[in-house]
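Researcher: Next entry in the queue.
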Amino acid sequence: MKIAITSSGDSTDAKFDLRFGRAAYFCVYDTSNGSTQFIANEQCDAQGGAGTKAAEKMIELGVKRIISGDFGPKAKDLLNQFKIQMVMLDDANSTVGVIIDKLSV
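Model: Structure for this entry, 105 residues:
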C-alpha cells in the first residue's frame, strides 16, 4: 500500500509538515517494498485550491492513506470520494523517517 506523508523537505530526515495542501513535499512510502519517493508539491504556493490539487495528485499516485496534520474541507471531500484514509498527526517535531519507522513495526 502507498502511504503519503507530508514533509518539509525531500529526505527522511526532514520534519513532518502539519499542512496538507501547503506541504513542501510528499513522501510516498510503499509498504510492499519499503521504498520511499519524494515528490515536490508544485501547488504549495498557489493562490487557492492547493488542497484540492494535492488531493488530485495523491489520487493520481495511487495513494491509499495520507498522514498529515490537517486537511481542508474540499480536500477531505475529494479524498473521501476515492476512499483514501486520512490520518491526522499533531507532531511537528517528528521527522518523516520516524513516522515511517512507526509504520514499519
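Model: Residues 50-61 form the longest helix (12 residues).
Researcher: Noted, moving on.
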